[in-house]
Specification:
heterodimer; A: mainly beta; 6-stranded mixed beta sheet; 5-stranded antiparallel beta sheet; about 50% strand; B: mainly beta; 7-stranded mixed beta sheet; 4-stranded antiparallel beta sheet; 11 strands
Chain lengths: ~120, ~110
């Protein structure tokens, strides 16, 4: 199947630092999404991107849909302890819309924030 | 409002025992429904998805099966659990262009 290459796999940072993670693919995606999963919980949607080049912010989070539609990044500014968790990128391929809607997920970035 | 419920939250089952995990969605009709498994707290593996009652698509061969007996109910089952079935199982539905909404998950430990 189609692959989303997410990096880094894990990050250990100090509270207050900025964080950047990204996803790349050899395939074009219609939509890019970023999720956060707290320990023992289901992933929660953070940001959704629908247009190539789109830059969207949600509080301290900023994400961009790459101009080629093959990549995306997520930045977190001024990290806090509650930012701990696994961050997933996900994309919707052009042939997986409508009633056949399916997302392709990256393998996640595990973020640890030291207070 | 639209909500998704998944239960139980945790389950410890012996090898060879049956399994039934249930997922229900409220506040919508004819949703796409999905079962994912997450091993070792990392990647999400799509197991099954359903676009309607009685319609199940399997993504990977395995020891599990899924059923959709009602529009907003999605069940994950096994006749005989294996140790390798342990993991975190997530149900999700697709409310539109904004991706999936996930349930809170079931932690299954097969002993």
């Amino acid at each position: 199947g189609q692959q989303l290459n997410q990096s880094p796999q894990s990050m250990f940072i100090q509270e207050g630092e900025d964080v950047s993670m990204n996803c790349t693919s050899s395939s074009i995606f219609n939509t890019w999404l970023w999720y956060k999963q707290d320990p023992g919980e289901g992933p929660v949607l953070l940001i959704a991107l629908y247009k190539a080049g789109e830059l969207t912010s949600n509080g301290r989070l900023t994400a961009q849909f790459g101009i080629t539609r093959k990549d995306s990044f997520l930045n977190i500014s001024a990290s806090i302890p509650s930012d701990v968790g696994i961050y997933f990128c996900a994309g919707q391929l052009p042939n997986s819309g409508g009633s056949n809607y399916k997302l392709t997920f990256g393998k996640g970035t595990l973020l640890t924030v030291n207070p | 409002s639209q909500t998704i419920h998944q239960w139980p939250a945790t389950l410890v089952q012996p090898v060879g025992s049956p399994l039934s995990l249930e997922c229900t969605v409220e506040g919508t009709s004819n949703p796409n429904l999905y079962w994912y498994r997450q091993a070792a707290g990392r990647g999400l593996q799509l197991l099954f998805y359903s676009v309607g009652i009685g319609q199940i698509s399997s993504e990977v061969p395995q020891n599990l099966s899924a059923s959709r007996p009602q529009d907003r109910q999605f069940i994950l089952s096994s006749k005989k659990l294996l140790l390798s079935d342990s993991g975190f199982y997530l149900c999700a539905w697709n409310p539109g262009l904004g991706g999936y909404t996930f349930g809170s998950g079931t932690r299954l430990t097969v002993v």
